[in-house]
Amino acid sequence: MISCIYDLVPLGHALYYLSMAKVYDEWINKITHLREEMREYEEMVSRLKRETTEEDQILGELQYIRNRINASSRILTDPEKTAFFFVVVPEEMIIIDTLKAAELFSRFDVPIAGYVVNRVVPEELASQDIPVYLRRRIAMQQEHMETIRNRLGKQVLAYVPELERDVTGLAMIERLAGIMYG
Predict the structure, then answer these.
(1) HEC states along the chain?
(2) pTM for the whole thing?
(3) How many Å apart are CA 106 and CA 112, to the nearest integer?
(4) pLDDT tens per residue, range 148-162
(5) What does the pLDDT look like over 41-80, one tens digit per residue?
(6) Torsion of CA 101, 145, 169, 82, to 10 degrees
(7) What's the average model confidence in pLDDT over 9-36?
(8) Distance CA 93, CA 99 (A)
(9) In CATH, what number does 84-181 get?
(10) pLDDT digits over 106-126, tens only?
(11) How confident is the model at residue 22, as a pLDDT?
(12) Are 94 and 88 in contact (CB under 8 A)?
C-alpha cells in the first residue's frame, strides 16, 4: 500500500482541486455529449456519401480525461483509500475556518478521518512565573479548547503542544510522531 501525505490549506488547494474536478467533469460531460451528437451527424452524412468515418480523436481524448477525473474523484471520496485530517489551532478564526472547510469537504463526499489540535500551550505553565501575554494566551486557548471539545469531540485524534519551532525535517517529524502516537 502506498501512503501519500498532502499538506494543504483547508480552504485553499484541497477545495480548489475537489471543486474543479466536479466542474471539469460536468464540462467534459457536456462537451462529450455535444461531440457525440456531432459524431452521429458525421456518420449519417458519411452513410449518405457512402464513406467511412475515422475514429473521433477529440471524443476519445475527452473520454480519457473524464475517466481520469472520475478515477481521481473516486479515490478521494473512498474512505478505504483516502483519509483527510484537519489540523486546527485553538484560535477562534482557525476553528471557524476549519469547521467551514469540513462542511465543504462533506459536500464533495470527502471522508474526514479526524482532527489534530496543534500548538497547544501547556496549561501547567500558567502556574509558573510567565509573562502576562503568555498567561492570557493560555486562558484564550483554554476557552477555545472547550469549543474544540464540544464541536469536534472524539473526532480529535491528538493534541500537540506548542513546539520551539515548526515541524520540518525528519527529526522534527519523528518527534511529532512520538508525541502523537507515543
Answers:
(1) CCCCCCCCCHHHHHHHHHHHHHHHHHHHHHHHHHHHHHHHHHHHHHHHHCCCCCCCHHHHHHHHHHHHHHHHHHHHCCCCCCCEEEEECCCHHHHHHHHHHHHHHHHCCCCEEEEEEEEECCHHHHHCCCCHHHHHHHHHHHHHHHHHHHHHHHHEEEEEECCCCCCCCHHHHHHHHHHHHC
(2) 0.72
(3) 8
(4) 999 999 999 999 999
(5) 877 777 777 665 566 677 778 888 888 888 888 888 888 8
(6) -40
(7) 75
(8) 10
(9) 3.40.50.300
(10) 888 888 999 999 999 998 998
(11) 75
(12) yes
In the block, residue with C-alpha cell 471524443: 59
Spell out the residues 6+ positions from residue 75 whose beta carbon is closer than 8 angstroms to its own: 81, 82
Distance CA 108, CA 15 (A): 9
How far is the C-alpha of 110 from the C-alpha of 74, rounded, in Å? 10
Can you say how many angstroms the Cα of residue 176 is from the centroid of all Cα atoms in its chain?
A: 21
Which residues have a Cβ under 8 Å from the Cβ of 179 and sit 6 or more positions away?
Answer: 158, 160, 161
Taking alpha carbons only, the member of 136, 28, 21, 113 closest to residue 71 is: 21
Cell of 57: 480523436
Count of CB atoms within 10 A of residue 107's CB?
11
